[in-house]
Amino acid sequence: MSKHLLLLATVAVIVVTHVAAQPGISVPPPADGNPHLWDRNRRCDQIGYTPACTTCEGTGGIPTADENDKITLTTCSIVNNASGVDPKTLIHPVWTEKWATSGYNEVLIGPKVDPFCFQVAPSNQSVGKLCYQKDSGSQTYDMSPGSAHALRDDLVLDSEVGKIESTVIAQGLNLWIVNKFPWYAANTHQCICTNVHQGSDPSAAFLYPIQYNWTQQMFYMGREKIGVEYGLGEMVLDHWAYGPHHVWSVPETGKTVRMWQPYNGLEVFPEGTQNASAVDPTKFDDLPPTLCKKGGATFRIGCTDGGLPKPKSTSEFVEKAKQLAKDGNTNTDRANQIVPGPDYKGATFSNMSHSLNKFLSSGATKVKMCDQFSAKELQELSAMLYLARDAKLDDIYSNVGDNRQLRGDLNDMQQTWSQLNDLVEGHEDSEMLHAIQRDGHCHETVMWFVHHLSEDIKNLLGETGVEIPLLTYGDHRPGCAKPKHAAHKQVCKSYEENVVCADCHSNVSPSN
Description:
This protein is an alpha+beta fold. It has helices at residues 2-8, 17-20, 29-32, 312-326, 332-336, 349-361, 375-387, 391-399, 410-425, 430-452, 455-464, 477-480, 486-498, 501-505; strands at 61-63, 71-73, 76-81, 98-111, 130-142, 150-159, 162-171, 174-180, 189-194, 219-228, 233-242, 245-249, 256-261, 265-268, 299-301, 366-368, 467-469.
């Protein structure tokens, strides 16, 4: 028994895919080389595969080991390719702001860092030996206004030393794992207090729980008749993908049924991810969990007396980030860090802008409010920043499909700007349209300044008196949800493309 207790007490993190493997941040094939030589059934990323991934590829199944044939592949037949489905009828996979589901089944995949695969946390690459952890149970997700803004999993894990009952709760930057060990460990409890890091790397950026609207960025692959594991059988579903992440949903409703990521896991949701009425708010009443506080569980790892993660790792990360910012003329370390650090994020769009404006204002370059610029002035400033850019940085972003990559060459962008200027200037709602256009340009200009210039160029701009806009605090996207007319819709489209920093920098929640 003492041997088992020792092993079980060494568990560091057991994290579900939703917490650690946010879609859009995984490393595509050119970066990790597909080291296990998985075929296009087991792995076919929406980015970086040649020929491009298409219908009934990358469908996966129930894996048991790294070898390509160590998987029970699902069945798949093509109902319609993407081009054969009217795009007006498509419904993106539904991942609502509030839902609960039971009968959930998963195979969690992550790097093997201990002999018994206790420490399974999804990574952003498939290099090295991987663990394949089976678990099942229920999930509760609530990001609705006024809620706990948290995700909870109540699972039974099938480990090599028996079944372990586990409750995993993610809220903000905090993650709690409460394990109840089997009979041979005297049914003792263990609590782990920690933070989730990008790629399971303690020195990398911290992550929030997955955003409530993440499926809206997925690309349509086609309609398939696919075998859904754990007793659901064959279903006609729409196949969506973003990078290595694949989702299957019911065409008529968008109900999310199945998810596959070749080095993060398989997930099956018989009840979908939209049942708000099934949410029990009391699931989040005990936060931090009592068992994680002093006098609680027999084993408490990384917890303060109050049940919060000890701050050491957070402070160490912030200091490392500050040091990286000082090292080198071109900060490729930050460019390779796809998810920003906690000091560069905000709980809302407004808070994000406040956080980033604080850093902009503390730099060598002068700043002024966004509404003190015109859209044309910002276009001229952006053109100058484009010409002064460090091309090596854009190569990094382009190679991984990062939103920070430039969206074309300067001539194409200037032509688009000119067309939008003509549309706005000649419209009866020109004042409203110009405000949206200008605010979008401010966000784009700041992104270019922060992520595409070397430190030397930034210092030079400061010495020559060039002024950079601050970010706006108001978000036009809620108003853009129901455009008043065609011009409003077109300006909003440009704005939404420009406000890409909110994809990573805001701990975004649904509006009221």
